[in-house]
Amino acid sequence: MRVDLYTRCWNDAHMLGFFFRHYDPLVRRYVVYDDGSSDGSLKLLRAHPRVELRSMPQPADPDSYVISGLALLEQCWKESRGAADWVIVTDIDEHLHHPNLKDYLVACKSQGVTIIPTLGYQMMSEQFPPEDRLLSATLTMGAPDPRYCKLNIFSPNAISAVNFIVGRHGATPHGIVVAPAHDELLLLHYKYLGFEGTRRRYRQYQTRRRKTDLTNEWGVQYSWSRRQLRKDWNECAARLVDVSNPEVRPSETYPAPVWWSGYPRAAQG
After folding, report:
1. What are phi and psi of 115, to 5 degrees?
2. What is the model's pLDDT at position 225?
3. From CA 62, how far away is CA 58, in angstroms rounded?
4. Strands lying side by side in the sheet with 153-154
């Protein structure tokens, strides 16, 4: 099973250890586009034997950090056609999770599945976790959040275009499009790790927003005051479930309709 992963990095040194610990058992090649990190990320990336480190290309839209990043992620994975069974297009804080992910991907491929959309959870911890943890096994409290129901993994050989919407919060893939018979793959979004640390990172992210991003309120959460962030934090905390608990059964109980509900499904395996 050959899996390539594509991502962007900007001052993500605090998350890279968790990222590699999660994906190393699965990914054969990482392609990482660095956007001028100054926090030690480059040292970590260069030390990893499977990372191909690249600089971000010229922005597709100088007035929008969001559009420029999206344009890159729409195209970069196409170099894996004919060389990988699956490509993952993701952010550093997004961990794809399934109890038996390798076997699940093998089964999906054998069933003709070409896209595997995820059921999204905003993961939360009041304290930033120790650096040696596998987050998907040790930090398992998250709130279901349809914003993170994304298409992070798909077949580069069957899909001709993904057509992400802004934020990759949805997509209209073209090509041979077949979703799994049941939605089992989770996206664990590890953004809310320690309130004060999250607030500091939001202030950093705010500096990346450009004219078009501001006009369209893309990434508006990065401009939140302490009070606004605390309000969202508390609302998220009130909806937490333990995604490792078998009784949660996300495929049966996820509380929102999913954007791929009308797509063709594989026959039940």
Report:
1. -130, 140
2. 97
3. 8
4. 51-55, 29-34, 3-9, 86-89, 153-154
Residue 180's Cβ-count burial label (10 Å; 0-12, 13-18, 19+) is buried
Query: Which three-class secondary structure state does DSSP give residue 106?
Result: helix
Measured on CA atoms in the order 130, 16, 74, 186, is the torsion positive or negative?
A: negative
Cα 60 to Cα 98, 111, 143, 176, distances in angstroms: 35, 37, 34, 28
Parallel/antiparallel/unpaired status of strands 186-193 and 119-125 = parallel
Choose among 122, 121, 119: nearest CA to 153. Answer: 119
Q: Are 155 and 85 in contact (CB under 8 A)?
A: yes
Check pLDDT > 70 for residue 269.
no
User: Does residue 268 carry a pLDDT above 80?
Assistant: no
Instruction: Evaluate the CA torsion angle 41, 43, 46, 47 in order and state its sign.
Output: negative
Residue 44 has pLDDT above 70, yes or no: yes
Q: Are strands 29-34 and 3-9 parallel, antiparallel or unpaired?
A: parallel
Q: How far apart are CA 30 and CA 51, in angstroms?
A: 5
Q: In this predicted structure, what is the pLDDT of residue 137?
A: 96
pLDDT digits (tens, 9 = 90+) for 194-217: 999 999 999 999 999 999 999 999
Closest CA to 10 of 191, 219, 201: 201
- 129 contacts 112 by C-beta, under 8 angstroms: no
CATH of domain 3-253: 3.90.550
**Overall pTM > 0.85:** yes
